Amino acid sequence: GQNIDQPTEMTATEGAIVQINCTYQTSGFNGLFWYQQHAGEAPTFLSYNVLDGLEEKGRFSSFLSRSKGYSYLLLKELQMKDSASYLCAVRGDDYKLSFGAGTTVTVRA
Amino acid sequence: IAGITQAPTSQILAAGRRMTLRCTQDMRHNAMYWYRQDLGLGLRLIHYSNTAGTTGKGEVPDGYSVSRANTDDFPLTLASAVPSQTSVYFCASSDKAGDGADTQYFGPGTRLTVL
Q1: Which of A44, A50, A87 sits opposite B42 (nearest CB)?
Q2: Which residues of chain B does A100 touch, with a Cβ-Cβ cutoff of 8 Å?
C-alpha cells in the first residue's frame, strides 16, 4: 500500500517562510507532485520532483530525497492568497498518484 | 477556454437513485481520472482511463462505473447511490505521452450529497 504523511495544519505570518514536509512509503517511485487547493476549488499543479534536489519556481521551491522518502514544499514571502491546502502526491509503480490528506496553511496579517 | 468541465456543480440525491457525473476535457489528453475527496482522507482514485476505449479500477471503485467512448468525455455513474458516497468528486486528465511529468489537471469538482 501507499502511505503519505504531511502535517494537518500550519499557521504563519504574512511575509514569512513556511516549510511543509511530506514523508512517503510507497510501492515504487515515479515522481512526487505538490498541488495547491483553495477552499471549494480544484487542486492546481505547483511542482514536480523526480530526481533528488531542489526545484525552484518563483516564491515556491520543492525538495526531494528519494533515499529518505522525504519531500518539502517551501513557500517564501508569504502572501494572504497563499492560504490554502497543499497536497503531496506520489506516483508509484502502477503509475497512479497517491495523495496525502493535505496541509492547510493559514497566513495571518 | 481550454480545460476540464464538470457537471453538475452540486447535487442532492436520494439514496437508491442513479446518478451520472459528467466530465469533458478539450486538451486532447489521453488519460482521464475520477477522484473523490473526503475530509481528512485526501483524494482517492475511483476509476481511470489511459486512452479512449479502456478503463481501469482505482483504490475505491465499488459502487461506481465509468465509460470512455471518446477522448473528451469520461462520465462517472453511481448505479444506486448510498449516503457513504457523499463527497466532492474531481475529474482530472493528463497527456500520458510517456515522458516527463505527465501532470494531472483537475476539473472544478462536483459536490454530491446522498440522503
Answers
A1: A87
A2: 42
- Half-sphere CA count of A4, side-chain side, radius 13 A: 30
List, in sequence order, every beta strand (DSSP E) within chain A: 3-5, 9-13, 18-25, 32-37, 44-49, 53-57, 60-65, 70-75, 84-91, 97-99, 103-108
Q: A41 and B107: CB-CB below 8 Å?
A: no
Q: Which three cell numbers stand for residue A66?
A: 528519494
* B108:A41 CB<8 A: yes
For residue A66, what is the DSSP state? T
Task: Say whether B90 and A97 touch across the interface (CB within 8 A).
Answer: no
In a mutational test of the A interface, the residue from B43, B45, B47, B55 whose CB has the highest number of chain A CBs within 10 Å is B43
pLDDT tens profile A47-86: 999 999 999 999 999 999 999 999 999 999 999 999 999 9
Q: Which three cell numbers stand for residue B59?
A: 483504490
CA distance between the termini of chain A: 41
